[in-house]
Design goal:
It contains 11 helices and 6 strands. It has 255 residues and is an alpha+beta fold. A 6-stranded antiparallel β-sheet has the order 1-2-3-6-5-4. The longest helix has 32 residues, at 85-116.
């Protein structure tokens, strides 16, 4: 790994397993400190660092080796392997390797599922909202600015209340949600005609994408993406009205 290269997943796993020398660890530490998305990736990989080996070490101590050997002794000689501790440990090691590999593959698959289904997760959450959910929340810029700084810390989106102002609807709250370690920003509005509405953001590296429409849980969704983030605007508003709002937001946020 050179001084400026982004660490690969293999290097992050080696970092977690304490397999890097001091210079390599220093470079990974520096990269993590500068890149919040890399730190998030490390957290994903760290979740698979469970004590499988210790568990199997204990299992080998409890295994009924004598009884298993007696069962194997009843087999014809050509088919009878020597059941010793080395053979049993080799089998356990194979199970450990398979378990760790399966766990990490599952985590990668799960992260992909969250990434591709995040709009569905948001829609499920928004389906629970009623106007009374938001009516009591403070509406001053100082409160919203503090909330937006939390979003910036997790997702790298530098937003201010003036950028998010929309005709007729009232900005109510900005907060960070998280699903399986994936952060999702939710900026909620209250529309006097249509109820709760939200602008939601998550990290994305799939490239820019123009506006697209869909319906989820009885609500309209307009979604798009830039080089670093995926965005969606969701509510009971008509689709054309939501798209006009989305265009206004996008023009301000990309200025």
């Amino acid at each position: 790994m050179n001084e400026h290269a982004r660490p690969s997943d293999e290097q992050l796993v080696a970092y977690l397993d304490d397999q890097l020398d001091n210079d390599q660890r220093r470079r990974v530490d520096a990269a993590i400190a500068e890149d919040s998305t890399l730190n998030l990736r490390l957290q994903w990989l760290a979740r698979s660092s469970l004590p499988f080996r210790q568990a199997y070490d204990e299992l080998t101590q409890q295994a009924p080796v004598d009884r298993l050997q007696a069962m194997l002794d009843t087999l014809p000689a050509p088919a009878r392997p020597a059941l010793n501790r080395r053979w049993f440990l080799a089998a356990a090691a194979g199970l450990v390797l398979g378990g760790v590999l399966a766990d990490r593959l599952y985590l990668g698959w799960r992260a992909s599922q969250v990434k591709h289904n995040w709009r569905g997760l948001v829609a499920e959450y928004m389906a629970l909202y009623v106007p009374q959910t938001l009516e009591h929340l403070p509406a001053d810029d100082a409160t919203h600015s503090a909330q937006l700084r939390t979003l910036d810390a997790r997702l790298g989106v530098n937003l201010v209340p003036a950028q998010l102002a929309l005709p007729r609807v009232e900005l109510k709250r900005a907060q960070i949600l998280e699903y399986d370690g994936v952060p999702i920003a939710q900026i909620t509005y209250l529309d006097p005609a249509h109820g709760a509405m939200a602008l939601c953001i998550t990290l994305s590296n799939t490239g820019s994408r123009h506006f697209a429409h869909e319906r989820r849980h009885g609500m309209n969704v307009v979604y798009w993406a830039d080089l670093e983030h995926a965005w969606m605007l969701i509510g009971h508003n008509p689709a054309a009205e939501l798209e006009e709002m989305a265009k206004l937001l996008k023009s301000r946020l990309s200025a």
